[in-house]
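Continuing the series of single-chain predictions for the mutant panel. This is the parent chain; the variants come on the following pages.
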Amino acid sequence: MSIAMAVSILLVSLTILVHYEALRLTSGVLPKLTAMAPRPRIIFVIFAVFAAHTVEVYLYAIGYWLLVGFDPAGTGAMVTHADGRPSQQFEDLIYFSTITFTTIGFGDMVPKGAVRLVSGVQGLNGLLLIGWSASFTYLCMEKLWPVHAERRHARAARHAARHREH
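Parent structure:
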């Protein structure tokens, strides 16, 4: 169980660091994109957040792969299919990590041994990081919504000025 706790602490720390840096970099780049309309800037934010979550899911998948593949403490760490067949394929572990991170948990893959604790922590970690992303996205949108109106009004004023000239 101590290996599962150590892996959990390491993965939570890594994913928080990845998330923090991704949001920090995104918020640093966003003000430099003033030539872009607000819509593409918001889409940029969404893709940046999605990329961060993808990296985080992969970090957990690597953690599962290491736990399942090596199981140094003999904890019986594994992820099984619903029919009981163990899976060590990385693609399955990415899928398991994704459904755990998003707290979907379809039930077609089941954690065993040390993976149980790590997957429980991952669900909570994913929930918090997704909430953080939602908050960040909201704050970015709150700043950019007024820019939509300003640009629309400026466009309408230019159009009206052209019409008056003719």
